[in-house]
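Need residues for this backbone.
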């Protein structure tokens, strides 16, 4: 069983066609079929079912697929790590992150990186939930992942900062003159909710937090992305909860940001299956110097509250 055979197998699966896979791989279709048959002989059974209009996985193929993906991606990571350790600057660095972090906090970091390492190509993989992010790391999709501390530590976990979670309201809101607000003061308000809202203790975060304050939030709109929820809140549709760095990225100064009392903070980490080296290690160092905090500092007389471990981002 060779790495090339697994790469051929994955390409056929992705394209659902031997013909299209052969074109992408720049090999003849008979040569591709020969390699797939050799792979099937090695594993002891058919991995792909040849159909009149394409190809699909057999039960054995479905079982083999995630292991083949991990092997191919791990080999790519190994090549990148070796090039980085040798000081090669022409490689790639794959970064996985929650969408809210990618849109709010990473643009400045990527700009700094490009200035310092212009010949290293960055590939960003975005995920809606922490669970999907952790699964991607386990599959070997990226060299580094950025998000809350993973529930099941995959290997190396490095704290790189924290993000502050805030409320967003329009300029004409009755609370616009305030800087801090307690959750019970928002009991009568409608909320803009996001499909990316974290899940804590088996509930969506806002349901859980408002429940602790003695009420259930009244939802006005559900959105797919945090940045959309922020813009809706800025327009006066309702109140939304979002990381402060997303608010800056989504609407700039076109809204009023209120800090929860006590303040809500969430630690951010960068993690990987293996200890970062070379370019990956340099990127971690950049995060640690750039992100001592991703939110406005809370007044010292108020005690901050760490957000509970969440299963979504």
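Answer:
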């Amino acid at each position: 069983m060779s790495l090339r055979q697994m790469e051929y197998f994955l390409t056929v699966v992705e394209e659902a066609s031997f013909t299209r896979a052969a074109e992408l791989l720049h090999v003849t279709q008979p040569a591709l079929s020969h390699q797939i048959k050799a792979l099937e002989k090695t594993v002891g059974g058919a991995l792909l079912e040849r159909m009149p209009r394409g190809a699909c996985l057999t039960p054995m193929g479905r079982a083999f697929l995630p292991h083949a993906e991990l092997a191919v991606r791990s080999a790519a990571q190994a090549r990148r790590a070796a090039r980085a350790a040798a000081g090669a600057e022409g490689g790639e660095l794959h970064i996985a992150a929650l969408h809210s972090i990618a849109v709010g906090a990473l643009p400045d970091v990527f700009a700094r990186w490009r200035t310092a390492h212009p010949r290293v190509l960055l590939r960003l993989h975005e995920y809606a939930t922490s669970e999907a992010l952790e699964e991607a790391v386990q599959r070997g999709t990226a060299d580094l992942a950025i998000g809350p501390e993973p529930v099941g530590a995959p290997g190396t976990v490095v704290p790189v900062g924290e993000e502050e979670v805030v409320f967003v309201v329009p300029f004409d809101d009755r609370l616009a003159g305030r800087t801090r607000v307690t959750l019970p003061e928002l009991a009568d308000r409608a909320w803009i909710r996001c499909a990316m809202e974290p899940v804590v203790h088996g509930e969506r975060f806002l349901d859980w937090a408002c429940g602790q304050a003695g009420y259930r939030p009244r939802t006005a709109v559900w959105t797919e992305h945090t940045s959309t929820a922020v813009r809706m809140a800025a327009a006066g549709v309702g109140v939304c909860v979002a990381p402060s760095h997303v608010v800056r990225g989504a609407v700039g100064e076109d809204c009023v940001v209120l800090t929860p009392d006590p303040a809500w903070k969430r630690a951010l980490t960068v993690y990987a299956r293996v200890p970062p080296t070379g370019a990956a290690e340099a990127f971690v160092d950049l995060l640690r110097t750039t992100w001592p905090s991703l939110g406005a500092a809370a007044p010292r007389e108020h005690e901050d509250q760490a957000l509970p471990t969440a299963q979504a981002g």
